[in-house]
Write a structure and sequence with these properties.
By secondary structure, the chain is an alpha/beta fold. The protein has a single domain, classed as Ribonuclease Inhibitor (Leucine-rich repeat, LRR (right-handed beta-alpha superhelix)). The chain has seven helices and eight strands. An eight-stranded mixed sheet has the order 1-2-3-4-5-6-7-8, with no helix packed on it. β4, α5 and β5 form a beta-alpha-beta unit. α3 packs parallel to α4, α4 packs parallel to α5 and α5 runs parallel beside α6. The radius of gyration is 18 Å and the shape is globular.
Length: about 220
Amino acid sequence: MYSSGWPAGAAEPRHGRGRELAQALSSVHGAPSQLASLSLAHCSSLKSRPELEHQASGTKDPCPEPQGPSLLMLRALQELDLTACSKLTDASLAKVLQFPQLRQLSLSLLPELTDNGLVVVARGCPSLEHLALSHCSRLSDKGWAQAASSWPRLQYLNLSSCSQLTEQTLDAIGQACRQLRVLDVAMCPGINMAAVRRFQAQLPQVSCVQSRFVGGADLTLTL
């Protein structure tokens, strides 16, 4: 299903760019309870309806109910790819990403995703095992300090090119995500090799730490 930030061998996305979004959502409208996997990667025009943004802001003014197909119908969804859906905001994700059974999620290349969005995703999707957040440059240690404890089942995590992260994020992940097996912190200038080695000592079951160009080094630790 996933094509960006996902382990080798994953299937290619089944749905295309912005003009195919309506067709993608309408195709699941007839049988939402059965759909387990959905890719909307690179749908650059994808955004929540104005009324969803309005509701997520906490205002008390009445809003009309959403009309037509919605991701919220897909209660059985286990895999979702929103890579490069660049118009999605924290408010969008807060209203839409409410999938307690979701196992795999890609939010890579979302320029508007901040620590607040990371925390609401953690609350709405607590069963994640695979998570890709590469090139989300607004994420910081503060967000991970709050979000990490929501993901005890996490096994694969891609944080490559998250430029604000430091070793504090590694500490938070190491304490909370005890089932982690693969971590990618490539191109994270705030994470040096000493921090990577401390993390590996903290979680010896991690089989691969991708850390290319971290702190000027080039290293992949594989056990």
